[in-house]
Amino acid sequence: MSGLAWSRDGADWPNRNASVFVEAAGIRWHVQRMGEGPLLLLIHGTGAATHSWRDLLPLLAQHFSVVAPDLPGHGFTQSPPSHRLSLLGMAADIGALLRKLEVRPEIAVGHSAGAAIAARMCLAGRMAPRLLIALNGAFMPFGGVANHLFSPLANLLVMNPLVPRVFAWQASHAGAVERLIANTGSTIDQEGIELYRKLVRSPAHVAAALRMMANWKLEPLLHDLPHLTAALVLVAAANDRSISPEVARQVREILPTAAIERLPGLGHLAHEEQPQLVAQLIFKYAHVNVAEQAASQCKL
After folding, report:
1. CA–CA separation, 90 vs 157, rounded Å?
2. pLDDT digits (tens, 9 = 90+) for 45-80
3. Cβ-based neighbour number of residue 189 at 10 Å
4. Number of Cβ atoms within 10 Å of the Cβ of 296
């Protein structure tokens, strides 16, 4: 199935000079690395890629050494076997990537499904950051009838190789990507829309996103979440139409030590709408967490 080609589709990729390609877990990864300082890992969500961090990454790189991969099958990273496009599989494969890069994140930031992957990595011992920041984290499964229908439907779509091609063809129609973005509750710039258009026109990228959704099982993560040792910050955008802001409250019921930061007026892609605001939130909690750790050490 045809995918994105770096020589062609990567010519105008944001922060292209920060891009490297790395072999790990049996696949070739596209990774962006920028900055110096404590290691910060960025994990994007389903259907996105490193372009999602295009404005946030340079801001964070002023204070951190930032590592941001394209998820398996997404963007310019090769796709593994279908069964590895799952929460456990992606956590293991990104863990293998970190080992290959010889990096140990002190801070992890995940958007949407990326937040769940980051949490699973922590709980499975794939990384041990002191701070995990979830940007509109997708921690809760679909409720009610949708919970019973969504996974079988996604599996059915994945089994049909024509579906990703049809989706990619439809995405080429005028206004299709704009409607997809509007349905997230976010308003992003034209550059962002064109980059998403490039992604959803790729049948291989669409197929990976569908397989990821088909394999998504959150119940084990929620069961294990009380054992999370990293400080957890739940950033919830008020206008998010993809992940209800109520999810943050539900997660805090499971893990009462979690902090919640609400972002009025923003949607699911809040970090693309207001990268400066999100960067300031990350800086704030990174510094607070350092101060808390120092105080804890003094008590010992």
Report:
1. 21
2. 999 999 999 999 999 999 999 999 999 999 999 999
3. 12
4. 9
- pLDDT digit string, tens, across residues 100-154: 999 999 999 999 999 999 999 999 999 999 999 999 999 987 543 334 334 555 5
Three-class DSSP labels, the chain: CCCCCHHHHCCCCCCHHHEEEEEECCEEEEEEEECCCCEEEEECCCCCCHHHHCCHHHHHCCCCEEEEECCCCCCCCCCCCHHHCCHHHHHHHHHHHHHHHCCCCCEEEEECHHHHHHHHHHHCCCCCCCEEEEECCCCCCCCHHHHHHHHHHHHHHHHCCHHHHHHHHHHCCCCHHHHHHHCCCCCCCHHHHHHHHHHHCCHHHHHHHHHHHHCCCCHHHHHHHHHCCCEEEEEEECCCCCCCCHHHHHHHHHCCCCEEEEECCCCCCHHHHCHHHHHHHHHHHHHHHHHHHHHHHHHC
Pick the CATH number of 6-299 from 3.40.50.300, 3.40.50.2300, 3.30.70.270, 3.40.50.1820: 3.40.50.1820
- Cβ neighbours for 213, distance < 8 A, ≥ 6 positions apart: 46, 150, 151, 154
Which of 144, 141, 148, 138 lies closest to 117 in space, CA to CA? 138
